[in-house]
Amino acid sequence: MGHQLLLCSSIPHKKYAQTVSTLEALTGLQKPQDIATYTIITKPHNVFKPKVEAGKVNQIEQYYMKCTTTWDDKASASLDMASPVITGQSEVKVERLFTGEKKKQWTFHIADIPNAGKNAVSAQNFYESTMVHYHTRGTKPITSSEKKPESQQENADEIGASDSIAQEGKADNDDDLMVVDDPAAESQPTVEKESPVSAANAAELKDSFLQFLEDLGYDVINQYWVKGIRFFHGDIVIEIFKVFIRDDSDTSRSENDTRIPLKLLDETNTFQIKTYITYPKGTNVDTITKGSKDLTHLKGTLNNLFELEVPDRMFLDSRVSRTI
Amino acid sequence: MNKAETNGNAAAASASIPVDSLELIRNRLHQVHQSLRKLADQINYSNRNPKAKLPGYLSLHGQFQVLITQLHSLASHLELNSDILRTTNAFPLPSFPTTQQEGLVTTLLRKKPLPEVDEWIDAAIAECNLFNIPLLKDDELAEWCYAKAKQLESDFVFDGFYTEKQQLYLESEEGVAETERKKEETAAKEEREKSIVGTGEPMKPNSILKFMTKGL
């Protein structure tokens, strides 16, 4: 378990250079660290309904889980944050994550809702775990490849993907996770799991990360890419980034290009800024209070550059039952 | 002169005495007298005992200040009551024992300063002239300094962001052309900014966080 203190802000694109220079001067970091991550947001597919009994803790919640890994293909490397991403002009296309045999570190992240009350900074508990995943294509039993591609194809058709994707899906059902962001996809793994035959197959398909998530009891509901830079100021981490999502409207793509086009989540090219300090479990309160003061102090220091604010806790609420 | 008449005269005389003014002045004189005596005592004491030191400079200075204040106050009171004092004539009442107290009467009735006091006054005036402090000139100098300071200040107050040279250049033909070009550049830049930013409102950090939390 960890504890995170957080303040957020955003800056328009034109202030990027100024902000970066200022932060370089402030932190003494000549070259900020790059951030390039790919995140899948998942949701538990079995609803957990504990029997309400007197004298027992009945408030048991289910949480969304974030699975994050690095985004280290050519698109990420060539994407310069200093130049804007303009819809229709700039082209950001990511490689399919699950092509090729690669080792990936995945970080699972479940966060509690931030503390209530009027605080100078947002304080939140979270749980994290990291897994190393070796992707192997493997040879699959016919039964599974018959069963799965079918549904995958449906899925692919639904979102209007080109034929090449569908074929790709048929050939290798592992490498098209990027396509699976349609609600329809969520229902089918459950079905599969219920049948004993496919459960047996699933055991052989354990090499797929998607499969792993399904076995874990989670469905993929969305995905995003984050690209930006990171500064360190004392214990404080300052991140400046943009969030990308899959661009389904992009039709210019050629038949053979299996890469996935991306667009900005916020098309105004606004940069998001997160400043946070993370503490391991059991850090004493004094240290956390000091961290909180440090963050507030940083807020004061950067006041004329951008205004750091406490994010609304309701927006950081990752409990499944709540729908905001 | 019978006794009743004498009493009547005394009453009339006492009625016409400017008691208030005299009393105030007497108080002031008393204070000055006290201060002077104290100062004299101290100096005499140190004169008599060679071992004893004179009071410290600060204490002497303080006493001198007090004395000046007292004298100033006295002078202002004399000035204030000058009319009454000038028109008042002092004379001994018939009941005063003139013969026994002759010395005191002559002292009290004396209107002119003593010859030695006259000498002091003359000496003081002469000395003052000798000093010849050019007070007016001082004022002139002060005025000149003030004007000069103002002028220097105005010389070093800068308006705008250009030096004189740059200002001249900007007013020349080339400068005008350059300004024009820069304006165009700025406009083009703004146009570019617009295409970058797009038309929509930027998303709030909260919304982004929500997306990053729940995918919505």
State the main characteristics:
heterodimer, A: 324 residues, alpha+beta, eight-stranded antiparallel barrel, 8 helices, globular, B: 216 residues, 10 helices
Question: Any overview of this molecule?
Answer:
The complex is a heterodimer of chains A (324) and B (216). Chain A is 27% helix and 29% strand. Chain A has one domain: Hypothetical Protein Pfu-838710-001 (Beta Barrel). Chain A has 324 residues and is α+β, with helices and mostly antiparallel strands. The longest helix of chain A is centred in the middle third of the chain and has 17 residues, at 142-158. Chain A has an eight-stranded antiparallel beta barrel with strand order 1-6-5-3-2-7-8-10, surrounded by four helices. Chain B is mainly α and 216 residues long. Helix content of chain B is 75%, strand content 0%. Chain B is elongated and about 120 Å long. In chain B, 4% of the residues are buried. The model of chain B has no long low-confidence stretch (mean pLDDT 82). The chains are: A alpha+beta (324), B mainly alpha (216).
Entry summary:
By secondary structure, chain A is α+β, with helices and mostly antiparallel strands. Chain A has helices at 16-27, 74-78, 142-158, 163-171, 183-194, 196-204, 209-216, 285-301, and strands spanning 2-11, 33-44, 65-70, 92-94, 103-111, 122-134, 218-233, 236-246, 260-264, 271-280. The chains are: A alpha+beta (324), B mainly alpha (216).
* Residue fraction in strands of chain A: 25-35%
Principal-axes geometry of chain B comes out as elongated
Share of β-strand residues of chain B: under 5%
- What is the number of helical segments of chain B per DSSP (H or I, 4+ residues)? 10
By CATH, the superfamily of chain A comes out as Hypothetical Protein Pfu-838710-001
- Structural class computed from helices and strand pairing of chain A: alpha+beta
The CATH topology assignment of chain A is Hypothetical Protein Pfu-838710-001
Structural class of chain B: mainly alpha
Helix content of chain A: 25-40%
The strand order across the widest sheet of chain A is 1-6-5-3-2-7-8-10
Instruction: Note the run of SSEs of chain A as H and E.
Output: EHEEHEEEHHHHHEEEEH
- Number of alpha- plus pi-helical segments of chain A: 8
Note the gap between the termini of chain B.
127 Å
If you average the pLDDT of chain A, what whole number results?
75
Main beta-sheet annotation of chain A: 8 strands, antiparallel, barrel
- For the residues shown, what is the average pLDDT of chain B? 82
Overall strand count of chain B: 0
Assembly annotation:
heterodimer
Region (Disordered) (chain A): 137-177
Subcellular location (chain A): Nucleus
GO biological process, one term (chain A): termination of RNA polymerase II transcription
Protein name (chain A): Mediator of RNA polymerase II transcription subunit 18
